[in-house]
Design a protein that fits this description.
There is one protein chain. This protein is an all-alpha fold. The chain is built from twelve helices and no strands. α8 runs antiparallel to α9.
């Protein structure tokens, strides 16, 4: 790893990370504070009045526990979509944008091998994802403990966030791979955006009705089994591991490709 480049990326991207942490904080604290078992019937009535919309966003299960409520209203879409946008922006910044604006020539002028440069960028992306998931996890646990002492199943919640990190590592791997393959920033962003949006849209459509249920097998979000992870199911852990492996493989493929290809510098 190139320590100098790593420190440079921290200085260049910490504001972006803080902005997204603030967004996750707002939604995380608001949704957690909304938990009230007495509101269950009212929320179910709303879900019955708009079944398609609630199903698309994974909110059909109101949940009798704080864990079920938070998992349904945050981890179905919000805590996937916002980090997904962060990954699209950051992955593009870490490779393709340097090539596109010619700055990569300065990085390559240093006596550092290409693979080390991209490994540094990949590790920085992974660190940001760990910070993001760790921060969101800690925030919700603190808010839930202050407002609803003893209500949150902490072990199950930690398992859930381990799965979320796996999903984000997959998206990060796809984004980093695209950024390493593309010469133009707009193309890298388009591919990363397509992966995230495609995954979310297919999952939302698959939830609408039995007619489209089979589409869930065409999106990586199916490997993020919220209920299974919460219950500690062995199959859910295997799917979670598959996300981690796929993400690392994609990052490795991107680094390998970047190390060998001709760059328009």
């Amino acid at each position: 790893m190139n320590t100098t480049l790593f420190k440079k990326e921290i200085k260049s991207n910490w504001i972006l990370l803080v902005i997204f942490l603030a967004v996750l904080s707002m939604y995380g604290s608001m949704i957690t504070m909304m938990f009230d078992p007495k509101m269950g019937d009212g929320l179910r009535a709303m879900a019955d009045s708009m079944p398609g919309m609630f199903a698309a966003f994974g909110m059909t299960n109101v949940g009798a526990t704080l864990l079920e409520f938070v998992a349904s209203y945050l981890y179905g879409v919000l805590y996937v979509a916002f980090p997904g946008v962060f990954i699209i922006i950051l992955a593009n910044r870490l490779a393709a944008r340097y090539v596109d604006n010619g700055s990569m020539a300065y990085l390559l002028a240093a006596p550092v091998k290409r693979w080390k440069i991209m490994l540094t960028q990949a590790l920085f992306l992974l660190l940001c994802l760990v910070i993001m998931v760790g921060f969101a996890t800690g925030l919700i646990l603190i808010v839930s403990e202050v407002l609803f002492p003893g209500e949150m199943d902490m072990k199950a919640f930690l398992r859930l966030n381990t799965g979320l990190l796996g999903l984000l590592v997959f998206f990060g791997g796809a984004g980093m791979c695209a950024s390493c393959f593309c010469n133009e920033s707009k193309n890298a962003s388009a591919i990363s955006t397509a992966v995230v949006v495609y995954s979310l849209l297919l999952q939302m459509i698959s939830r609408v009705g039995e007619k489209f249920e089979s589409l869930k097998y065409a999106t990586p979000l199916t490997l993020f089994d919220i209920d299974g992870l919460s219950a500690g199911d062995g199959e859910a852990w295997l799917m979670c591991a598959a996300l981690y492996v796929a993400g690392i493989v994609l990052m490795t493929a991107g680094i390998a490709r970047f190390s060998r290809r001709d760059l328009p510098l």
